[in-house]
TrEMBL record:
Organism of derivation: Streptomyces flavofungini
The protein's name in its UniProt record: CGNR zinc finger domain-containing protein
Domain Zinc finger CGNR residues, every copy: 129-170
Superkingdom of this protein's organism: Bacteria
Entry-linked Pfam families: ABATE, zf-CGNR
Lineage: Bacteria, Bacillati, Actinomycetota, Actinomycetes, Kitasatosporales
Length: 173
C-alpha cells in the first residue's frame, strides 16, 4: 500500500505534521505509517531535519497571499525534491507513478511526496484550497476538500466558535 497523491491523503498528512510538528525521527516515522505510508528504509535523525525543512517550505506555500506566489514557492519545492516520473509497482498493489527516485530515505521522500501531492491537490481542486483556519487565534492549517471549496474553518468547533462571536458582536452593536 502507498499514499495516493491524487487523493487528499498527502496534503492532509502535511497539514497534520505542520500543525503538530514531530519531535523525533521515530515519532515522524510512526505518524507517517499511521497515515498509510510504507517505509522501505529505517529512519535516521537527519530524516527529521529534512522533513522539518520541507514543512517550513510548505508553510510558506500555505501562507502565500496570491496564486502566483503560491505557484512559485511550490515550484521551488518541486525543483528541490522531485525526479522524473517513473512507473513503479514497489508494493505489488498495482502500477502507479512516482515523481521521486526509488528507495529514498524518509526525509527526501516526504519532501517529494508533499510537493507533488500539494501540486496535484491545488491544480486539481483549486489553487485557493489550502489555508489556515479563519479563527485568528487558531491558525490550524487545512486542505479544503469540501464540495464547494469554501471551507473557512479547520473544524466544526471553530466554525461554531466564530458563529457565536459574530452573533454576540451583532447583538451588542
Ligand atoms: Zn508508491
Ligand atoms: Zn480552527
Amino acid at each position: 500500500m502507498h499514499l495516493n497523491p491524487y487523493g487528499a491523503d498527502v496534503v492532509n498528512l502535511a497539514a497534520e505534521l505542520a500543525n503538530r510538528r514531530p519531535a523525533s525521527a521515530e515519532e515522524l516515522a510512526d505518524r507517517c505509517r499511521a497515515a498509510g505510508l510504507v517505509l522501505e528504509r529505517p529512519v535516521a535523525p537527519q530524516d527529521l531535519d529534512r522533513a522539518l525543512e520541507a514543512l517550513t517550505a510548505w508553510e510558506e506555500v500555505v501562507d502565500a497571499t496570491d496564486e502566483e506566489a503560491r505557484a512559485d514557492l511550490l515550484n521551488r519545492m518541486l525543483a528541490a525534491a522531485t525526479a522524473h516520473p517513473r512507473l513503479t509497482d514497489h508494493a505489488g498493489t498495482g502500477w502507479h507513478l512516482h515523481y521521486r527516485d526509488d528507495r529514498q530515505p524518509l526525509g527526501p521522500l516526504l519532501h517529494a511526496l508533499i510537493a507533488v501531492g500539494t501540486a496535484l491537490h491545488l491544480t486539481g481542486r483549486g489553487m485557493h484550497r489550502l489555508r489556515r483556519c479563519a479563527v485568528t487565534e487558531c491558525a490550524t492549517i487545512f486542505a479544503d476538500t469540501s464540495r464547494t471549496g469554501r471551507q473557512r474553518y479547520c473544524s466544526q468547533r471553530c466554525a461554531n466558535r466564530d458563529a457565536v462571536r459574530r452573533h454576540r458582536a451583532r447583538s451588542t452593536a
